[in-house]
Amino acid sequence: MLGYVTLGTNDLARAANFYDAIAKEMGVGRMMEFDTFIAWGKMGGAPGIAATKPFDEQPATVGNGTMVALQVDSTDKVQAVYDIALANGGADEGAPGPRGDDGFYAGYFRDPDGNKLNVFTMTS
Question: What sequence ranges are listed for the domain VOC (predicted)?
Answer without folding.
Answer: 1-122
